[in-house]
Request: fold
Amino acid sequence: MSLLTTEKEGKIVARPGIIRKTAADLRALPNLSDYAKADLQAGLAGLPGGGVNIAFEAVDRHACGPLRDHTAFRFLGRDGSRKDLSYAELARLTNRFANVLRRLGIVKGDRVFVLAGRIPELYLAVLGGLKMGAVVSPLFSAFGPEPLRTRMRIGEARVLVTTSELYRRKVAKIRESLPTLEHVLVVDENIPGTLDLGRLMNEAEDEFVCAQTTAEDMSLLHFTSGTTGTPKGAIHVHGAVTTHYLTGKYALDLHPEDIFWCTADPGWVTGTSYGIIAPLLHGVSSIIDEADFDAERWYRILQDQGVTVWYTAPTAIRMLMKAGKEMPGRFSFPLLRFIASVGEPLNPEAVWWGKEVLNLPIHDNWWQTETGGIMIANTPAFDIKPGSMGRPLPGIEAFIVRHEGDSVAVVDAPDTEGELALKRGWPAMFRGYLNNEERYRKCFAGDLYLTGDLAKRDADGYFWFIGRADDVIKSAGHLIGPFEVESVLMEHPAVAEAGVIGKPDEVVGETVKAFVSLRQGFEPGEELRMELLAHARKRLGAAVAPKEIAFLPSLPKTRSGKIMRRLLKARELGLPEGDTSALENSA
Ligand code: ATP
Ligand code: MG
Reply:
């Protein structure tokens, strides 16, 4: 068994490379205990008369059955308010929204954009829009005018739903440059040049017959995070609902009585696929918090709302770690039974932190905007190898491939690095990049979708993330994945987050440079720098360890919380920063 070293009680100690699961770790009978017996038929209804519609499966189907009075969403307001919506109420209000769109002359395939914080209207607009056959695109409310303009232009927005505050601050100044944008529906005020959504909703009827969409009809338009360049608009279809259902069942292990909390904003795909759709498909109650990250608030939500399944992201976990171990001790969340994470590599240290501080290890899973749903995952019944993304879910075939000229070859040998590829054909696979057919075609080699991520598969079938193809460092004949180096730096008690890049070097090709931000109670300094360099050298060897370490108060991240290594690199080398529309702190 391999030994990882890691920090405990301020010291670096040895730890096993596997977390073995026993029956005692399972607080509910797992949905997935035998891959061979997994049922790939989703428990969905289909539209009366044929066809499929995400909103029908998520809402309408439950609204006339035993779940009608069950809480679908609980909205926690920034101001401490609380609002529950049952499945029946959600059906009625999304019907009204669908009627509002219909009255405005919106037809199937028209693009409806939503720009709002995590308030009820956002959720009504997404589901109501899907229900009437519109193509919905939720945008991050923190985007500045420029990124909003780009996305609404690419997406040819016909309707925008927003708040008065966001309209005044961001939309008003770009509206003239968006010729396709006919209607702006404002949630909370009557502003000249816009429509008052509250009034329209009051006037709308409660009944609506779901549009007769097919599995191949476009449903959602999601923009990628922009970590590696200009965000791409990924086209999704209503048939994706099968993947949403199966992954909710197998990757998130949703059970009927669960209280589920997905912390992602619907401005990126996780916040829609799992913050809206998958939990509703399973008829569970979801917590939606309007406020931004705050460690204390988050522990309080886990406690007070009795969250049972929690889906979050490495960056949030690292921030909780940064806030210290004492804080969670002041709260108690005995009902929490499963924690999952997505979006970035989850450092082994974070998995262990979950186990030791929250009494539950964190289960990493992997997917992309393009895949529409979780593809590779750690699930409750199976052992975790901290640092691994887990194994392909039932129905998903994943491979490691090598490029050979213009074609690719599948690598069968375990522990061999290559590009992660998926056999095409899973229901939620994207059907194109909007206005970029060429780029879409380049993602495929025969039957395989090429993900752009480098990984390896071990002999037990677990997949290990190495880095994005663009981020991998080539030094003196070695291929160095930033994740490996970052994880080792994270083992040190002082390090809260780490981002690693390659710096061009005439002799070895590239040298490794690390940027770190520190946990509370630690100060940057020469002594600490030397200590970190020595720690990394001891763990990784001189060829892979960073040659330089710089301290930053925090690392540049996308709005969805991903470390932007390309930006660290551009800044280091004095190169143009490229597309920074997705940068967390950009205007
Ligand atoms: P862009 O494509 O615009 O550069 P992006 O790839 O960050 O942005 P997303 O689709 O939001 O946009 O993110 C998917 C990517 O996030 C994956 O390709 C992978 O690089 C990374 N990722 C997601 N989950 C994991 C994980 N569990 N481990 C490692 N990396 C992950
Ligand atoms: Mg990507």
